């Protein structure tokens, strides 16, 4: 069940969602970004899976998707040093460098990949600093616009992990600091060490475990970047035609994916969805979420448990 949201100003209204949000109060971007993780995984020998392990099989297609995203108005591109072992960052730079003035590249560090199926937190300060230096090289920048701690390492004090990012910030190598997959308590603990500009957690219509984090971010002016923003779950299952989401999408003349993204834009003025795709067609569809209007009755219906 969705948690009560009386603690923050209700963003629900018949007015269109605010089009931009300033990350860290200083980096305004359009609130519909692009997640580059899907631009990965070329052929890999059996029996190994390839979950974001190798560069894309169709590199030119991936480059074109990134360039088209910016043409369609994307101002926030999210990647990570763990995607394709740094190859995803290189792909972003190849497609978009020199970067447009308003384009913010967000990356992440703090996860090590010993094999295709392993994602292991590694938050030792010296490792985080090394990975940030490598990200600077791969992205071809002097300052990382947003560096996020990919996962908290339970073996290292959180203050030490965030402290390493704060040191990079003080050196001018990081503009804004973020966290990923964290609780409100962890955000508060990290905020005592450094200003937290963004939080990236899994969140969508079907998975609202982090409702309290969304509200905390709204109260404190922190950007909330929901990953897997279109995991439609029970909302898209048959029960009508495509279920509740499909019916509402038909009513407003949109696709279910567009309505799922629009719901996030209405959810809070600090939410910045980062849908990813390897298809220019799906990219254009996702960006069409800006054209979806949801009235109070439809928002209430979407808010209700599936």
From TrEMBL:
Region (Disordered): 1-22
Coiled-coil ranges from the UniProt annotation: none
Gene Ontology CC: one annotated term: cytoplasm
Gene3D superfamilies: NADP-dependent oxidoreductase domain
Alphabetized UniProt keyword annotations: Oxidoreductase
GO MF, one annotated term: oxidoreductase activity
Matching InterPro entries: AKR (IPR020471), Aldo-Keto_reductase (IPR050791), NAD(P)_OxRdtase_dom_sf (IPR036812), NADP_OxRdtase_dom (IPR023210)
NADP-dependent oxidoreductase domain mapped to chain residues: 31-304
Keyword Transmembrane (UniProt): no
The name this protein goes by in its record: Oxidoreductase
Species of origin: Streptomyces marincola
Upper classification of the organism: Bacteria, Bacillati, Actinomycetota, Actinomycetes, Kitasatosporales
């Amino acid at each position: 069940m969705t948690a009560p949201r009386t603690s923050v100003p209700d963003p629900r209204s018949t007015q269109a969602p605010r089009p931009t949000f300033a990350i860290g109060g200083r980096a305004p971007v359009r609130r519909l970004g692009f997640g580059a993780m899907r631009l990965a995984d070329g052929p890999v020998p059996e029996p190994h899976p390839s979950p974001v392990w190798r560069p894309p099989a169709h590199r030119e297609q991936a480059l074109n998707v990134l360039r088209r995203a910016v043409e369609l108005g994307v101002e926030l591109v999210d990647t990570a040093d763990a995607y394709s072992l740094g190859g995803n960052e290189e792909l972003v730079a190849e497609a978009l460098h020199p970067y447009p003035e308003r384009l913010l590249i967000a990356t992440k560090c703090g996860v090590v990949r010993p094999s295709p199926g392993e994602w292991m937190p590694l938050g030792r300060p010296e490792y985080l600093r090394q990975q940030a230096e490598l990200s600077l090289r791969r992205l071809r920048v002097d300052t990382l616009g947003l560096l996020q701690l990919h996962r908290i390492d339970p073996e290292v004090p959180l203050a030490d992990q965030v402290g390493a990012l704060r040191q990079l910030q003080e050196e001018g190598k990081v503009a804004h600091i973020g966290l990923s997959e964290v609780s409100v308590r962890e955000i508060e603990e990290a905020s005592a060490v450094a200003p937290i500009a963004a939080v990236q957690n899994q969140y969508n219509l079907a998975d609202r475990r982090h409702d309290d984090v969304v509200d905390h971010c709204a109260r404190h002016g922190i950007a909330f970047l929901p990953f897997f923003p279109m995991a439609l779950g029970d909302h898209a299952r048959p029960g009508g035609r495509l279920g509740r989401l499909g019916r509402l999408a038909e009513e407003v003349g949109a696709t279910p994916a567009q309505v799922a993204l629009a719901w996030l834009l209405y959810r809070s003025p600090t939410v910045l969805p980062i849908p990813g795709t390897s298809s220019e067609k799906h990219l254009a569809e996702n960006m069409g979420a800006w054209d979806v209007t949801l009235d109070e009755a439809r928002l209430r219906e979407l808010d209700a448990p599936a």
